[in-house]
């Protein structure tokens, strides 16, 4: 490919787009992200906290190893990465060409405000005469035609909403820097030589205004789930008070109606949106936090789809500990209540009584909009679509889907020989060390602001105080740093002078920040030796207060020292433990990236649960991967082998495996991927062991797909879901059983159309597109009988036959069935891995699954950097989902494996061995397991791949034997003193 | 409705030869072309509109078109204060008088079946109910009487148009 | 059932213990013993490592003196396992400090036999030397004459931790007629093995021990509470605190004497506190005048922050202060509050985690 730097285009800057972009940046590619709206962040911008731990955590997507190239603050404020350029208000028009050399035509609509000139003063917004409903707050509240599109995203400039703008020109006049330009001509431009495109456009949430049932848009107190999230957000229209839109009254009783716009055949929505059940529970819990103890929260649902690993317990806690009421009933419509602002629901509860209840507010849990199609160019070769663009996915599903898309794209690039650019870090660090070796020579640059009227006299006052500072300071004034002439003057001053520290006294950091980045490219200045103080923004301040800021900036600079020098070598190979679908997928993904893989499998064959999979398509896809793995020269397979020890740090592990013969092998590898899988659970519930015709659903699957089944006499078959599961101690949904049982039932009906099939269920977990299987089952006449944990059916073996006794809750009558077969959905359990847990020091959940670092944002990482997990070992999943997780884990591993060595970042812990007492408190307290004792050297060392510079070790070390670079004790004390 | 669409669907050659219009199409054509003139100020009461099952969701299901917007447009030309009964359009509650129940002796049962309709009307504080369907008209009138709400007028849509015609 | 042996003392309790220790050495139950010892040159009982059983003659295990807190010395002998068994005879506060040092990986106690005794307090070094000039056997007098016990330090008088925690063997003096007999109690399996190997006959623990312990506890607790309230007055705000430590010379004697101040090099000696001239000048400029050394209050505050969870109240810091600042009083008072907050008793149990290593999502005190 020559010297051209490979560029990837990511379409969509929601979490999937950001994740994919960061994945490419982490392995060295340049990325361009385009986003249709004026802000970065997607749907999540409006949602403050997410299930199942009710926190945010979006920032956990940010790079953990290469931190210096990326902003490390809240991702909702924007994404700033040296290798990622973001273009908002831009759309893709067409994609042509061959993969690796695609030509993309884009269309951009100007925002009306020049981002280089905008200083965020907000005067334009003040004078704008147009007020429209605030779309960010779902219409609850107003905003001007010119505004910050997302109130807390202060990095993007102000933006004009052309649809409501009257082009009156007031804002143009009011802008002090001339940043406003009323020109909304679409601009079309080309991007050539795009190596690959990732489509991460996500979905749109359904607008229930079109479903006249619920009066959304007519009744002010009927709101969508997004609007509810805005109401309880502290940056929302009511500043976080839970009051209702019509009269601002405190909400005491609120109901959620599930499946609005989904599972609705009338509007052609034969799918489940997968995430709404969980976010309704989350919203109910967040609401309860704000409401009084006697407040009521009710969720009306058909099936509570808590199919994720920790979701069932989350729901149980909501019900039992927090008092959220769950009513299984799909309410027909909403009518006005006694008080016209109240809302009345009429429903039938579980005791078959008709109930009428008035609520203060009703939240419609809207899923994805039906009928959205991907554009034609999405199927162009070289274009990869992230899962979340195909259907509404929760956060972990979106993140994994993005990583899979990025992984497939980067595999294609590797095949085409398109490599990431080489970064020249050595040159830079040499220059940096020099700056720290000498005594600090501080240059203060005072910006004489062209906008503020008495800037000159202000600076006079500041200069005279600065002269009193001990130590030498070179002070210079420059007019209007934000303009080109001002900035050129600064560059000249730096080049001509001998300063090795730079302090700017100017305005908003958002304006200065990008300019300082420019400085790094044109001069020897780098970010660690630059500080800035804002002396102009906000209300007027005394000279004393401004001087304090400058004093603090100078103190901070003075105390900065040389960089941490040692880099960590990386062994460019991976150890994959487990040869099932997930492990095979991970191994192949890595091998396709030209990484050597050691695949260790305990049993004598590869494939894991493949031997139990009946579905032809699924079998085929796994077998394809299996064949590729076996034929791949980069993958060394060790069957009948087990891991006995593993030690080391990220990028540098040493492990030992033992074969059946007793022979031991040492493996050096850079990362570990755990794919130890799971298996069918066993249960003794429902008399399972008492009769040969009571089988697990897996056995049932085998049976109905066997040729002999059609010859059998089958009058009726009963299936009982959630057998021995979704209750303590095994209180999680196994995710695969409902779909499998329904497929079994459909197969039975296909072979024996007259057979009666009954399914006893608690909640049918046909999430996503699998909902249509449920619809079909009902159409085919399969009878569904719901039960809950207190009214389980009873199974008796009488005179050699089966008797199933249950209750039909709709009729309220007992049901007795004498089926020919009884299928129990027993669920899955993870394989036993206590020895591996000990070897790696990883955590497991109470059910034995390997715990991820973060179930939403880092779903395939473990708490230990360099060790990843995927598939059934982590959580119940279908084989195709497990294979995707394998690819995602491989993609995460590439962050480490794509480097020859891990370069130390600026913010790291360092150890001064000469005064270290080896008390090891720092090792115990480190949340990232980033410290260890090097037994050969007898020293405490820092793993720079894992260390995040959090400072816990430095806080606990009594004599500062360990410090955080740039936050050393003496420096901080000086800054504090400067502030006092 | 059944005539027009039914004719088109089931007896297409008849339809092609003779054509058929629903009363909505007719009224709209007359009003739009100016063939009839209306005095919107004549009706001062609040009017509630009821979507009949046959014109609404039944028509939608059988023929692919429900007459929701047409009567509303017409009402807009006739009355200044008219309100919807919620839930509206395709999800409107049935009045209980369709399917031939008016011909059966089960008067009490069908009136009980239509009790929701009375609640809807009560809530709007309407003084007149407009229904384009014969069965609905009969049912709702009887139900209002039974519930002591006989002051509330029940009119056909074309009745309303006729009432406010400007005849010179 | 705690294993308890009675030992006859014949008016010389020290000798009884000496012979037990001598037997432990000669029977090879331990390889070396660390015990207070009267050297040729000084009457102060210095912790001494004895390998030759014959030398045990000069050992003074029960001496009512502690020239310094011997935990540090014990830790240096027990820094890492050597394959040799080491018996250490220490006061209660010294054992507690040793256990805290083990938590900080400064020593390993796997091969140690910890021998403690019911501590009746210690006499300050200068007073002890004065008495030694007049008397040959201070120890025996101390246990025979209870009025001598009034001469112990103020901090000892307020100490409620006189019974050893975690000792393998405890020399029991409470509730015993010390001049006639004392007890030897096993606290662990290792201790029991030693009692068995020494062939000592065992009995039930005498009731008098608990009674005597409770009565002494009451006395000590009263004294402690009085100490706390008086000291709290002296340090109740920053002005009063600075007044109390006003004469501090930054000599760091208190830090050196403290057994749980374990840093290889104290942060106050590192570059962290070696202020640049510009910094000192700026401080002077800002406040008008600044006393040097600049970090006196900071030093004490820092030490409190770092080790108040582990303060065992041995009082050595006050003993060594050249300006007679009541350092021990201050540290005990503040430490008691800190330890109460975390329900932590230093040295109580080696498996008990240091409070700031324990992370609880819901904090127990609701903060």
Could you give a quick summary of the protein structure above?
Chain A is α/β, with parallel strands linked by helices and 980 residues long.
Largest interface: A-C, 25 and 27 residues
Helix content of chain C: 25-40%
Number of strands of chain C: 8
Average pLDDT across residues of chain B?
85
Name the structural class of chain C: alpha/beta
| Portion in beta strands of chain B | 5-15%
- Poorly predicted spans of chain C: none
Biggest sheet, spatial arrangement of strands of chain C: 3-2-4-5-6-7-1-8
> How many structural domains in the coordinates of chain C?
2
Number of domains of chain B: 1
Q: Say how many strands of chain B there are.
A: 4
Largest beta-sheet details of chain B: 4 strands, parallel
Q: In angstroms, what separates the terminal alpha carbons of chain B?
A: 32 Å
Helix content of chain B: 40-55%
Q: In angstroms, what separates the terminal alpha carbons of chain C?
A: 42 Å
Q: Topology as H/E string of chain B? A: HHHEHHEHHEHEH
Q: What is the strand arrangement across the widest sheet of chain B?
A: 2-1-3-4
Given helix and strand content, the structural type of chain B is alpha/beta
SS strand fraction of chain C: 5-15%
Number of helices of chain C: 14
Describe the structure.
The complex is a heterotrimer of chains A (980), B (168) and C (367). Chain A is an alpha/beta fold. Chain A has 22 helices and 47 strands. In chain A, β12, α5 (276-290) and β13 (296-301) form a beta-alpha-beta unit. Chain B has one domain (36-163): Rossmann fold. Chain B is built from nine helices and four strands. A four-stranded parallel β-sheet of chain B has the order 2-1-3-4, sandwiched between helices. Chain C has 367 residues and is an alpha/beta fold. In chain C, β2 (32-38) and β3 form a beta hairpin. Chain C starts with a strand and ends in a 26-residue tail after the last helix. The mean pLDDT of chain C is 92. Classes of the chains: A alpha/beta (980), B alpha/beta (168), C alpha/beta (367). Chain A binds chain C through residues 468-471, 914-921, 924-925, 956, 958-961, 968-970, 974, 977, 980, and chain C through 104-106, 262-267, 270-273, 275, 277-279, 281-283, 285-286, 306-307, 354, 356-357.
């Amino acid at each position: 490919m020559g010297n051209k730097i490979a560029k990837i285009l990511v379409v969509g800057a929601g979490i999937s787009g950001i994740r994919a972009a960061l994945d490419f940046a982490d392995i060295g590619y340049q990325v361009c992200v385009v986003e249709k709206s004026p802000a970065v962040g997607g749907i999540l911008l409006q949602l403050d906290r997410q299930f199942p731990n009710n926190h945010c955590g979006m920032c956990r997507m940010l790079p953990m190893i290469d931190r210096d190239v990326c902003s490390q603050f809240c991702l909702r404020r924007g994404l700033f990465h040296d290798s990622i350029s973001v273009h908002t208000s831009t759309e893709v028009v067409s994609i042509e060409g061959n993969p690796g050399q695609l030509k993309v035509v884009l269309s951009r609509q100007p925002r009306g405000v020049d981002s280089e000139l905008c200083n965020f003063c907000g005067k334009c917004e003040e004078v704008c005469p147009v007020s429209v409903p605030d779309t960010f707050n779902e219409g609850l509240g107003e905003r001007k035609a010119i505004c910050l599109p997302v109130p807390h995203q202060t990095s993007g400039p102000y933006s004009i909403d052309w649809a409501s703008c009257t082009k009156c020109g007031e804002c143009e006049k009011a802008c002090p820097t001339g940043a406003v330009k009323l020109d909304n001509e679409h601009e079309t431009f080309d991007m050539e030589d795009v190596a690959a495109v990732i489509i991460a456009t996500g979905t749109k949430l359904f607008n229930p205004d079109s479903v006249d049932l619920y009066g959304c848009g007519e009744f002010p107190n009927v709101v969508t789930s997004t609007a509810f999230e805005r109401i309880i957000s502290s940056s929302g229209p009511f500043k976080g008070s839970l009051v209702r839109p019509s009269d601002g009254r405190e909400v005491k009783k609120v109901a959620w109606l599930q499946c609005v716009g989904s599972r609705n055949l009338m509007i052609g929505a034969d799918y489940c949106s997968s995430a709404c059940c969980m976010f309704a529970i989350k919203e109910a819990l967040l609401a309860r936090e704000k409401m009084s103890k006697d407040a009521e929260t009710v969720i009306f649902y058909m099936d509570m789809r808590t199919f994720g690993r920790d979701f069932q317990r989350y729901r149980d806690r909501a019900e039992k500990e927090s008092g959220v009421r769950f009513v299984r009933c799909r309410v027909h419509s909403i009518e006005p209540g006694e008080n016209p602002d109240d809302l009345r629901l009429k429903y039938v509860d579980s005791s078959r009584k008709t109930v009428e209840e008035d609520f203060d507010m009703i939240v419609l849990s809207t899923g994805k909009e039906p009928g959205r199609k991907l554009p034609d160019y999405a199927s162009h070769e070289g274009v990869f679509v992230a899962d979340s663009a195909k259907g509404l996915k929760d956060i972990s599903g979106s993140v994994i889907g993005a990583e899979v898309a990025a992984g497939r794209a980067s595999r294609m690039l590797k095949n085409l020989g398109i490599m990431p650019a080489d970064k020249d870090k050595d040159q830079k660090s040499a220059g940096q060390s020099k700056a720290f070796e000498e005594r600090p020579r501080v240059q203060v640059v005072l910006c004489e602001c062209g906008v503020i009227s008495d800037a000159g006299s202000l600076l006079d006052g500041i200069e005279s105080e600065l002269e009193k500072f001990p130590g030498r300071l070179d002070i210079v004034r420059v007019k209007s740093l934000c303009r080109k002439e001002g900035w050129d003057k600064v560059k000249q001053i730096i080049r001509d002078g001998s300063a090795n520290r730079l302090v700017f006294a100017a305005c908003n950091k958002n304006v200065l920040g990008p300019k300082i980045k420019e400085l790094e490219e044109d001069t020897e200045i780098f970010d660690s030796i630059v500080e800035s103080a804002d002396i102009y923004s906000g209300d007027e301040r005394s000279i004393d207060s401004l001087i304090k800021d400058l004093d603090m900036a100078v103190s901070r600079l003075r105390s900065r020292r040389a960089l941490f020098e040692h880099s960590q070598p990386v062994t460019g190979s991976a150890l994959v433990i487990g040869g099932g679908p997930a492990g095979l997928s991970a191994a192949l993904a890595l091998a396709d990236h030209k990484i050597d893989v050691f695949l260790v499998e305990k049993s004598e064959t590869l494939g894991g649960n493949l031997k139990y999979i009946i579905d032809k398509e699924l079998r085929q896809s796994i077998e394809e991967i299996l064949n590729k793995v076996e034929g791949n020269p980069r993958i060394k397979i060790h069957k009948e082998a087990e891991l006995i020890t593993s030690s080391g740090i990220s990028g540098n592990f040493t492990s030992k495996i033992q074969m059946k013969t007793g022979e031991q092998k040492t493996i050096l590898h850079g990362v570990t991927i755990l794919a130890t899988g799971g298996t069918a659970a066993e249960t003794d519930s429902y008399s399972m062991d008492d009769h040969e015709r009571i089988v697990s659903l897996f056995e049932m699957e085998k049976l109905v797909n066997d040729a002999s089944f059609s010859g059998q006499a089958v009058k009726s078959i009963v299936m009982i879901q959630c057998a021995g599961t979704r209750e303590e101690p095994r209180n999680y949904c196994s995710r695969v059983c409902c779909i499998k049982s329904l497929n079994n039932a459909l197969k039975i009906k296909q072979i024996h159309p007259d057979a009666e099939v009954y399914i006893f269920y608690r909640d049918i977990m046909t999430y996503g597109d699998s909902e249509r299987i449920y619809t079909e089952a009902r159409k085919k006449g399969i009878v569904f009988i719901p039960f809950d944990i207190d009214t389980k059916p009873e199974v008796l073996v009488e005179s050699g036959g089966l008797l199933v006794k249950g209750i039909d809750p709709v009729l309220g009558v007992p049901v007795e069935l004498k089926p020919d077969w009884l299928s129990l959905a027993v669920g899955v359990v993870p394989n036993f891995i206590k020895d591996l847990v000990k070897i790696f020091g990883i955590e497991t959940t109470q059910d034995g699954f390997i715990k991820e670092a973060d179930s939403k944002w880092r779903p395939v990482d473990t708490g230990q950097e360099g060790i990843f997990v995927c598939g059934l070992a982590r959580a119940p999943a279908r084989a195709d989902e497990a294979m995707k997780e394998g690819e995602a884990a491989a993609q995460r591993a590439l962050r480490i494996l794509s480097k020859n060595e891990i370069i130390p970042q600026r913010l790291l812990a360092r150890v001064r061995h000469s005064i270290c007492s080896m008390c090891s408190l720092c090792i115990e307290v480190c949340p990232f397991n980033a410290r260890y004792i090097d037994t050969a050297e007898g020293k405490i060392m820092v793993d720079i791949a894992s260390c995040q510079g959090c400072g816990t070790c430095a806080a606990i070390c009594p004599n500062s034997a360990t410090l955080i670079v740039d936050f050393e004790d003496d420096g901080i004390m000086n800054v504090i003193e400067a502030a006092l | 409705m059944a005539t027009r669409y039914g004719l088109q669907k089931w007896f297409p050659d008849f339809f092609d030869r003779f054509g058929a219009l629903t009363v909505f199409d007719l009224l709209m054509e007359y009003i739009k072309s100016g063939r009839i003139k209306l005095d919107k100020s004549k009706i001062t009461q609040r009017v509630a509109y009821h979507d009949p099952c046959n014109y609404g969701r039944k028509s939608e299901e059988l023929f692919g078109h429900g007459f929701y917007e047409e009567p509303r447009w017409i009402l807009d030309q006739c009355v200044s204060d008219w309100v919807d009964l919620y839930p509206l359009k395709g999800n409107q509650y049935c009045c209980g008088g369709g399917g031939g129940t008016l011909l059966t002796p089960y008067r009490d049962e069908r009136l009980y079946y239509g009790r929701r309709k009375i609640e809807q009307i009560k809530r709007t504080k309407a003084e007149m109910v407009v229904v384009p369907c014969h069965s609905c008209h009969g049912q709702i009138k009887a139900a209002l009487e039974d519930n002591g709400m006989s002051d509330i007028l029940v009119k056909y849509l074309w009745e309303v148009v006729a009432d406010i015609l400007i005849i010179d | 059932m705690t294993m308890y042996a009675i030992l006859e003392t014949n008016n010389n309790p020290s000798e009884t213990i000496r012979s037990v220790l001598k037997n432990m050495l000669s029977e090879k139950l331990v390889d070396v013993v660390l015990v207070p010892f009267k050297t040729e040159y000084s009457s102060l009982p210095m912790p001494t490592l004895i390998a030759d059983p014959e030398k045990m003659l000069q050992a003074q295990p029960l001496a009512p003196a502690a020239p310094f807190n011997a935990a540090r010395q014990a830790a240096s002998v027990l820094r890492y396992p050597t394959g040799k068994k080491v018996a250490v005879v220490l006061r209660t506060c010294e054992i507690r400090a040793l256990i805290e040092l083990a938590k900080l990986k400064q020593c390993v106690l796997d091969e140690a036999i910890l021998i403690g005794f019911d501590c009746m307090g210690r006499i300050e070094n200068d007073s002890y030397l004065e008495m030694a000039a007049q008397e040959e056997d201070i120890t025996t007098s101390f246990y025979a004459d209870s009025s001598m016990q009034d001469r112990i330090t103020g901090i000892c008088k307020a100490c409620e931790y006189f019974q050893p925690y975690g000792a393998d063997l405890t020399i029991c003096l409470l509730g015993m007629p010390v001049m006639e007999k004392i007890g030897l109690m096993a606290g662990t399996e290792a201790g029991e093995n030693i009692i068995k190997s020494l062939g000592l006959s065992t009995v039930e623990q005498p009731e008098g021990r608990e009674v005597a312990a409770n009565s002494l506890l009451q006395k000590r607790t009263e004294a402690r509470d009085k100490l706390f309230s008086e000291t709290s007055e002296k340090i109740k705000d920053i002005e009063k605190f600075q007044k109390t430590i006003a004469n501090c010379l930054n000599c760091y004697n208190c830090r050196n004497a403290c057994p749980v101040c374990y840093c290889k090099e104290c942060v106050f000696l590192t570059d962290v506190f070696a202020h640049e001239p510009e910094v000192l000048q700026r401080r002077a400029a800002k406040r008008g005048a600044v006393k040097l050394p600049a970090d006196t209050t900071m030093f004490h505050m820092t030490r409190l922050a770092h080790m108040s969870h582990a303060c065992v109240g041995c009082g050595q810091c006050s003993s060594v202060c050249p300006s007679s600042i009541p350092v021990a009083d201050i540290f005990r008072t503040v430490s008691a509050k800190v330890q109460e907050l975390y329900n932590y008793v230093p040295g109580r149990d080696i498996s008990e985690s240091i409070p700031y290593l324990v992370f609880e999502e819901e904090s127990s005190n609701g903060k």
